[in-house]
Amino acid sequence: MHSHDNMISYNVAVDKITAFAEEVVSTSLAIEELPLLKALDRVAAKDVRGPEGPEGTLPRWDNSAMDGICVNARHIASAQAKLAAAAGEDGESEVKIRSLGRVVAGDAPPTFTPNMWDYEDGDIVCYEIMTGAPVPKGNFFDSVIKIEDLGRTRLVRQIEEDVEPEQSIFTLPFTTHILQGQHIRRAGEDIPAGYLLLSKGTLITPGHIALLASFGILRVSVPRRPRIAIITTGKELTSTTSATPTTSSLAAGRIFDTNGPYLFSTLLSTHLLSASDITLLPSRNDSPEHFEELVLTHVLGSETKYDVVISTGAVSMGVHDFVPAAVRRLGFDVGFHHLGIKPGHPALFATLPKGERQGGVAFFALPGNPGAVGATERFLVRPYLRTLLGLPREGPTFATLLQPSHICKKVGTRNWLKARFVRSTSNDEGLGVEVLDKMQGSGMMRGLAEGDCYVELLEGAESVQSGQRVRCWRFGGEGV
Predict the structure, then answer these.
(1) What's the alpha-carbon Rg for the chain, to the nearest Å?
(2) Which end of the chain offers a freer environment for a tag, N or C, measured as fewer CB atoms within 10 Å?
(3) CATH code reported for the domain at 63-185
(4) pLDDT digit string (tens) for 234-267?
(5) Does the keyword Magnesium apply (predicted)?
(6) 68 contacts 134 by C-beta, under 8 angstroms
(7) Assigned superfamily of 10-30+225-388
(8) CA distance 272 to 469
(9) Which residues pair with 434 in a beta bridge?
């Protein structure tokens, strides 16, 4: 009988994993500078701040939020009050507003003060202004009346074909109320000068790219993406990456390799890696010698610098479970082997310290059952990659368990159950979760296809009841 006296808790395991990742980050993971348009889904390596001064604000100047006319609200209100006091049944009921010109987006703002040109006291003037156009300088024009409002108030625009825009006359009913400052976007109201546009450790989204582009920041520093080698073991496996196999072509006792394609695709689903960062290494002869030769040749002896090796299978304590001993012979230091988790308790984590061969390599030996591969990638490999890239640790999503009966587990282990989020009207948040019935076996794959999250049951829990709030982790990661 084999002993698992050296089995450690999940929290201790993650601490070991992230500690090595932090060591690699501080000593060997390179920073590269990318064009902005290639920075999507990369992680910011540095804080990025906007410029100081007016050029560092957004908007950079006061501008119109609408197509319409730019006016002085106090003068409009004064003219409306005079009309209201004097108007009879047949009296004048509209303020006449004379246009001094037109300003469109891309124009330099005109300057106007009341003592300029032919302006006279009592003369109500405006500039026609388009969305995004700068408000005229001089602190006189302080509000915009949108063209739709003028139209709804029986706007009369008196323009002849041969009359310049400066001679346009607008009319506005005295009952239309104008708020000072309406429909004007003030300089810096969105982004003040010197603002932190992008924080170190942030996953860059389209919104970040738009924000940086608005300040002319066209290059971004990011950590180099880690390169990952995947090795699937098992005499029974038939490759799914070379030929075009069919079920009828399988020899007796053989199955198609699913772990390699699953790991490749689930790592891509994190948006932390590209396809070129992941290599499925050919594993054709299930033996310790072949396994060691594969690692020596394709990983440690390769011109490609692999940062992470993930193997599946042959990691427990059976007769053919040769990976733990092979990893040690290859010079890796084993951080842990066997965890208090389900599924995936035989998982192994080992490291090759910097300075030995290529150095700074993390080795994750995962169990061979696909359900265990899914869970151990999500909860062991993923934290390592996030730390390596400078991302913070994820937090769970909480949802209400919707089950016909309670779920039991062994105290002392951390369990992850394949599940599916559902929208529920039976709880305030509206988010429920259903554990997938009859899909929890380590060898079962249907739950990985039909589910979208794991329900996590902590070590101290013995059971969980329907209606309880439970910790959930999305398959694809935080926010995915």
Answers:
(1) 33
(2) N
(3) 2.170.190.11
(4) 776 777 766 565 665 677 778 788 899 999 999 9
(5) yes
(6) no
(7) MoaB/Mog-like domain (3.40.980.10)
(8) 30
(9) 420
